[in-house]
Automatic annotation (TrEMBL):
The chain crosses the membrane at residues 6-32. The lineage of its organism: Eukaryota, Viridiplantae, Streptophyta, Embryophyta, Tracheophyta. InterPro entries: Kinase-like_dom_sf (IPR011009), LRR_Rcpt-Like_S/T_Kinase (IPR051824), Prot_kinase_dom (IPR000719), Protein_kinase_ATP_BS (IPR017441), Ser-Thr/Tyr_kinase_cat_dom (IPR001245), Ser/Thr_kinase_AS (IPR008271). It comes from the Eukaryota. This is Protein kinase domain-containing protein. ATP binds at residue 110. It comes from Spirodela intermedia. It is found in: Membrane.
Length: 364
């Protein structure tokens, strides 16, 4: 074959191949844009319709019983989101006390305007709390979508968080007695057992801690802040994700670099919460032992294993340093600490399920 003809054939082949690749790239880009431009499909309530410009990456399904409330109403109810109305903060936003026109007091969580994190928490909370009901889970009442803003409306729980009652005591907020602490822990256990065993698929909270446990007027516990929650597909025992949670409560497998979130990670965090409730100490603050700083969980587990678990008790429970709790409470405390020790086992498979934990606590 003549060299000229060979060169022409090679040039034509190269042009055809480049054209084909360019066409495939255009089709892929078009498909991606179509997938990314799906509009949030919100139910219309009270005459309000979703904003046409509120485009997001994925659709969200809502319980039709949830109210959609306008930004103007929420701004008026919170004093334009005044700093003195802030009652707490969650994973990605502040929580405000709001006085609604009908006389109700509610809590409004204004999520971070960050497009990714704000939407992710919004979706996680709506698709968990918006569709399930349990006496030990915070109840979501409604939502607001306004431009890039995402807000969630909850029942207002007047006693605040467990964290405040453990670590911010005062004349108006005295230390919780042992019976109240045990009741709160039972409530959290019941809520987690429901999420893990009764929800299909199971829901992993991933951020169990004292500040995410709210208390109603009767000191009944409500788990809140589901912004990091994930559902586990029925065909799997875990969900692969980025490491999430709060230092001091995270299980050792996260520190070892594993990112598979399982229900046993929640069990570990719950065990840390148990030690925190019993000791009155923050899990992410080290304990000074013989001049050395030791993590709370290591210190507490060592005392339980050595038969000296009562030494970790919050002095406020015993009327001061060195005082002993009543005999009946002492046995309860020992059983309580044994459960906490099992929950915080380094090996996730050795930790009990939350259903087992609830049964053990009910026997105390």
């Amino acid at each position: 074959m003549e060299p000229v003809i060979q060169a022409l054939l090679a040039a034509c082949g190269s042009f055809f191949l480049v054209s084909l690749l360019f066409g495939v790239a255009i089709l892929c880009l078009h498909a991606f844009r179509n997938r990314s431009s799906r509009v949030l499909n919100l139910p219309s309530r009270g005459g309000e319709r979703p904003r046409a410009g509120a485009s997001i990456n994925e659709s969200v399904t809502f319980d039709p019983s949830l109210d959609r409330i306008s930004m103007a109403r929420l701004a008026a109810a919170t004093g334009n989101f005044a700093a003195d109305r802030i009652v707490g903060d969650g994973s990605f936003g502040f929580v405000y006390r709001a006085e609604m026109p009908d006389g109700r007091t509610v809590a409004v969580k204004k999520l971070s305007p960050d497009a990714f994190h704000g939407f992710r928490e919004f979706r996680a909370e709506v698709e968990t709390l918006g569709r399930i009901r349990h006496q030990n889970l915070a109840r979501i009442l409604g939502y607001c979508v306004s431009g890039s803003d995402r807000l969630l409306i909850y029942e207002f729980l007047e006693q605040g968080s467990l964290d405040q009652w453990l670590h911010e005591t005062s004349s108006s907020r005295p230390p919780l007695p042992w019976a109240a602490r045990l009741g709160v822990i039972r409530g959290v256990a019941a809520g987690l057992a429901f999420l893990h065993a009764d929800c299909k698929p199971p829901i992993i909270h991933r951020d169990i801690k004292a500040s995410n446990v709210l208390l109603d007027g009767g000191f009944e516990a409500r788990i809140t802040d589901f912004g990091l929650a994930r559902r586990v597909d029925s065909s799997r025992s875990h969900v692969s994700t980025q490491v999430a949670g709060t230092m001091g409560y995270m299980p050792p497998e996260y520190r070892d670099g594993l990112t598979a979130a399982t229900v046993k990670a929640d069990v570990y965090s719950f065990g840390i919460l148990m030690f925190e409730v019993a000791s009155g100490r923050r899990p992410n603050w080290p304990v000074l032992v013989k001049g050395k700083e030791v993590a709370l969980v290591r210190w507490a587990r060592g005392l339980v294993e050595g038969g000296s678990g009562l030494e970790l008790l919050d002095p406020a429970l015993m009327g001061g340093e060195g005082a002993a709790p009543p005999a009946a409470e002492e046995e309860q405390v020992k059983g309580f600490l044994t459960v906490a020790h099992r929950c915080t086992s380094n090996a996730s498979r050795a930790r009990p399920s939350m259903g087992e934990v609830l049964n053990l606590l009910d026997q105390l």
